[in-house]
């Protein structure tokens, strides 16, 4: 199941998100249990 990360990237699953977070040593959290879309990216800019 795809997840949307706090970095605005869609990951295939939460495991891939966690691996990316670990490899980059950057905190990335799941913000939605679906793909990131334009609405999500706009909220990052305006919120």
Automatic annotation (TrEMBL):
Residues annotated as domain Kazal-like: 1-38
GO cellular component terms, A-Z: extracellular region
GO BP annotations listed: cell differentiation
Keywords: Disulfide bond, Protease inhibitor, Serine protease inhibitor
UniProt cross-references to SMART domains, sorted A to Z: KAZAL (SM00280)
InterPro entries, per the entry: Kazal_dom (IPR002350), Kazal_dom_sf (IPR036058), Prot_Inhib_GrowthFact_Antg (IPR050653)
The keyword Disulfide bond belongs to this UniProt entry's keyword annotation: yes
Pfam families per the UniProt record, alphabetical: Kazal_2
Protein name: Kazal-like domain-containing protein
Species this chain originates from: Dinothrombium tinctorium
